[in-house]
Amino acid sequence: MSSPDLPEYVPGNVAIWTKTNAEYTDAAAERSWTRDEVTWGIWGIPETEVDVLGAVAGLDVVELGCGTAYFTAILAKQGAHPVGVDPTPAQLTTARRMQAETAIEFPLVEAAAEAVPLPDASFDLAISEYGASIWADPYRWIPEAARLLRPGGRLIFLRNSTTVTLCQALDGVTEQLQRPLRELRRIEWPDTGEVEFHLPIGELVDLLRESGFQLDRLLELYAPEGAETHSYYDFVTGEWARRWPAEELWVAHKTA
Ligand SMILES: C[S@@+](CC[C@H](N)C(=O)[O-])C[C@H]1O[C@@H](n2cnc3c(N)ncnc32)[C@H](O)[C@@H]1O
Question: Of 19, 35, 57, 87, which is the most exposed, with the fewest CB atoms less than 10 Å away?
Answer without folding.
Answer: 57
